[in-house]
Amino acid sequence: MRVVPPGFVAVDLFGREVLCLSDDAQVIRKLVIDIESATRPTTTALDLITSYQSLKPALIKTVTADLGLDNPDAVTAWLDDNLEPQLQALAKLDPPVVYLFIDKPGLKQIVKAGWGDPQFRYNKVADDIEMNLALDVSTDHPPDDAVLPVVYETGTGDTERAALLEKTIQEAEDKLAHGLAQRSIEMLQVGLVQMIADVGIKQLDLKRDQLWWGMGAAGMLSTKYVATITGISRAEMMEAITHDFPRNPVKMARVDLLNMTSESDLRRDVIPLYLDAARRKSAAVVWNWSQQAGERRIGEAFKAIREKKPADGIAIAAILKDLSGEDIAAKLVSSP
Asked: What's the CA gap between 213 and 219, in Å, rounded?
């Protein structure tokens, strides 16, 4: 629970809480703040849930076809029980932000006395304050108060201090809006990937040398659905997930999807890098195949794999070749 520092009072500023010294309360109350974000996110959390709800019937129909399912019941139930509650919770999220209006010596004094831990801590070696100013946009628990300091130089006039407070509030609210928007898009894509895995891929019971189909289909289809709901370019998303990540030393070309290295044979720090490269290569293979074969073939492929229960990864590649005439086997192995 947040504690007001000794000598400070809480002032309501048009729905925003400001902690300030008692002598500054009148300065705060006289402010007339007119804040409009000049950089409103393209898709807010509320926009996303509204778009999702309007497109839900069409989404269920599309997913059912893409996964080669006979009826939409499993897709509908998964969305109702998992994705939709998470999106609704995020759309309603309103993390409490409190502004601390204070000069530099005053901030050091109250933090040295123990106020603000763990968000604010005094570093004895540097004789300075360490601050964690991250805003909590998690839906896993009730959000904690975030205290954002508005630190002015001692002796600064009221006009300049008021301008600093207004600027800080605008920047914080812009950052929060964009953070919620980005979190909602990430939650949407992660949720859709999990839905594809739970509803369409798990029942295939893929072996290790067949995992490329699941990873590739999940990546490719999730971008399709995210693009439909958000308006984000699918081509740009696919470009991002089908090429090497520049900072990953494990390159896609060196991964053999038909003979993937066991995680037990990899150093712990290499495992996530290897899996990232494998996912990217899988997405590239399945995406390129679908562009040649036509996306309607995806559902046919899921159905054929489910019914024929292919013995290995090469057998899945053979199913895809039968559907399209496109032989992808050479693209699955490693290359120099």
From this structure: 10
Which tokens belong to 240?
Answer: 């991002």
Nearest-Å Rg of the Cα atoms of the chain is: 26
Q: Which residues lie below 8 Å from residue 316, measured CB to CB, with a gap of 6+?
A: 210, 213, 305, 310
In a structure prediction context, what are the per-residue pLDDT tens digits for the chain, which is 336 residues long? 467 898 899 988 888 899 999 988 888 887 766 555 445 566 677 888 899 999 999 999 999 999 999 999 999 999 999 999 988 888 887 788 899 999 999 999 999 988 887 888 989 999 889 988 776 666 666 667 788 899 999 999 988 998 899 888 888 888 888 888 888 888 999 999 999 999 999 999 999 999 999 999 999 999 999 999 999 999 999 999 999 999 999 999 999 999 999 999 999 999 999 999 999 999 999 999 999 999 899 999 999 999 999 999 999 999 999 999 999 999 999 987
Residue 281: count of CB within 10 angstroms of its CB: 26
Q: What is the pTM of this model?
A: 0.81
For residue 300, CA distances in Å to 34, 312, 330 come to: 56, 18, 22
Contacts of 332 (CB under 8 A, 6+ apart): 212, 256, 257, 258, 285, 313, 317
Residues 6+ apart with CB under 8 A from 86: 139, 187, 191
Q: Count CA atoms closer than 13 A to 57's CA, side-chain side.
A: 1
Other CB atoms within 10 Å distance of the CB of residue 122: 20
Say if CB 209 and CB 116 are below 8 A apart.
Answer: no
Give the distance from CA 72 to its chain's centroid: 27
Helix (H) or strand (E) holding 102: strand 97-103
As a whole number of angstroms, the distance between CA 131 and CA 274 comes to 35
Domain boundaries, the chain: 8-45+91-181, 205-332
